[in-house]
């Protein structure tokens, strides 16, 4: 007998038939003797609809009320799921964030879960009742409802699993697992049986959309075994997130991720002296703008150089405004920016042991005539910034260069 958390995303609870279907999957686990906590997202499209309503009334509405409205999406699906379970003969009860409680920080719309109180949920599970927890929401230090950021349903599920010390967390979604890359770009993309936490963390933060990055962080921190599997074909197998040691054969590259949410800024002819990087990136950090890749050229004359960095596309205008304002303190000749860029990354724990992995990437891109604008690396990833129109070509070429279609 195991303790399982089952998470159903928006498409898995999109209408009443799907909720009935999902309840059937829960019933199967309950009938097998397991204790089950379910977490749900809002029905597909609901969160967007609720956001649009708040915006129609006020473009910049009170963040606390924004959360009060958004949390309603998960309240509906949690209640409906409990009803569907009861109708199928499974004793069940819905739980809103504040009822559990799921405690969070007070930063509305992107709060962080700080503690989930497991005692009452555990008591109910032990008594044979299935708990249906509304995902995406919690309660802040002041007792007000909070939400934890778009796509936060994954994070709620893993955090509940960690708090309950569940044996596993099954994320039911509309794809049957984590793929070597986006199957819409590469038709031969292959489902991965296993992915190491660290790899998944890189892949999620580099653009793979299967899981919210924060959910992978929590899974890794608490060593929660997470399975990603399809609601519509669970028997297909899915992908298991696990420890690196549990992966026998480590290929140099496990996955290829890409992100179009990139913009590049170059400052020309900045002074090459101590304190300049701090003068540039300090004000950007103070404004809450995340910097990703950075390159600085050597200065030819020892006095002036160029510096290029990337930000999220949505932050470009704000970043340019901050730099303009800090201009006198930095001292540069001019700024140029480019939104027509994208980042392509290769990720794999096997990279540590295989030399020449980055070289294969650079050669492959050069053979396709794709110019690399910026490079950044870590122990288990190499990212390049290229012109956006080459993303698909680059991903396809890399997928075959690393022979990723074959296991
Ligand atoms: N309903 C929320 C959203 O759409 C959370 C989630 O589905 O993960 O962002
Ligand atoms: Mg999602």
Walkthrough of the structure:
The chain is α/β, with parallel strands linked by helices. It has two domains: 3-246, Carbamate kinase (3-Layer(aba) Sandwich); 256-401, VC0802-like (2-Layer Sandwich), CATH 3.30.2130.10. The chain is built from eleven helices and 18 strands. The chain has helices at 16-31, 46-57, 63-87, 119-126, 153-164, 197-205, 213-222, 276-286, 316-330, 357-367, 391-401, and strands at residues 3-8, 35-40, 92-95, 102-104, 113-116, 130-134, 137-139, 145-147, 168-173, 194-196, 226-230, 239-242, 255-271, 294-296, 304-311, 334-347, 374-378, 381-387. An eight-stranded mixed β-sheet has the order 3-6-2-1-9-11-12-10, sandwiched between helices. Helix 6 runs antiparallel to helix 7 (213-222). The longest helix has 25 residues, at 63-87. The chain is globular. The two termini are 33 Å apart. The model has no long low-confidence stretch (mean pLDDT 96). Aspartic acid (ASP) is lined by residues 9-10, 41-42, 47, 73, 136, 150-153.
Number of helices: 11
Which geometry do the CA atoms define? globular
CATH superfamily of the largest domain: Acetylglutamate kinase-like
CATH topology of the largest domain: Carbamate kinase
How many whole angstroms does the radius of gyration measure? Answer: 23 Å
* Mean pLDDT metric: 96
């Amino acid at each position: 007998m195991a303790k399982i958390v089952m998470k159903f995303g928006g498409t898995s609870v999109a209408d009443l038939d799907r909720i009935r279907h999902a309840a059937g999957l829960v019933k199967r686990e309950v009938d097998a003797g397991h204790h089950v906590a379910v977490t749900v997202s809002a029905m597909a499209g609901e969160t967007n609809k609720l956001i649009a309503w708040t915006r129609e009334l006020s473009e910049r509405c009170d963040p606390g009320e924004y959360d009060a409205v958004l949390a309603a999406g998960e309240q509906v699906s949690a209640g409906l799921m409990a009803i569907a379970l009861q109708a199928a003969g499974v004793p069940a009860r819905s739980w809103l964030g504040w009822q559990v409680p799921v405690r969070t920080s007070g930063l509305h719309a992107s709060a962080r879960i700080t503690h989930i109180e497991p005692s009452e949920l555990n008591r109910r599970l032990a008594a044979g009742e299935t708990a249906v927890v509304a995902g995406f929401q919690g309660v802040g230090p002041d007792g007000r409802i909070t939400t934890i950021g778009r796509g936060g349903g994954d994070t709620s599920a893993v955090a509940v699993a960690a708090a309950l010390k569940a044996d596993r967390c099954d994320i039911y979604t509309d794809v049957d697992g984590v793929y070597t890359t986006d199957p819409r770009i590469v038709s031969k993309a292959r489902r991965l049986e296993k992915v190491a936490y660290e790899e998944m963390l890189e892949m999620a933060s580099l653009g793979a959309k299967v899981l919210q990055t924060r959910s992978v962080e929590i899974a890794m921190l608490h060593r929660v075994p997470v399975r990603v599997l399809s609601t519509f074909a669970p028997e297909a197998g899915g992908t298991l997130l696990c420890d690196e040691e549990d992966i026998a054969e480590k290929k140099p590259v496990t996955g290829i991720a890409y992100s179009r949410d990139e913009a590049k800024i170059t400052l020309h002819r900045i002074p090459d002296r101590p304190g300049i990087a701090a003068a540039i990136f300090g004000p950007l950090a103070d404004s809450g703008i995340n910097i990703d890749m950075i390159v600085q050229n050597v200065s030819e004359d020892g006095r002036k150089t160029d510096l290029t960095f990337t930000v999220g596309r949505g932050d470009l205008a704000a970043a340019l405004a901050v730099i303009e304002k800090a201009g006198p303190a930095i001292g540069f000749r001019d700024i140029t920016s480019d939104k027509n860029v994208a980042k392509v990354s290769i990720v794999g724990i096997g990279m540590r042991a295989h030399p020449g992995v980055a070289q294969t990437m650079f050669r492959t891109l050069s053979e396709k005539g794709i110019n690399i604008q910026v490079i950044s690396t870590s122990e288990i990833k190499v990212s390049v910034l290229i012109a956006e129109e080459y993303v698909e070509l680059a991903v396809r070429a890399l997928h075959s260069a690393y022979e990723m279609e074959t296991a």
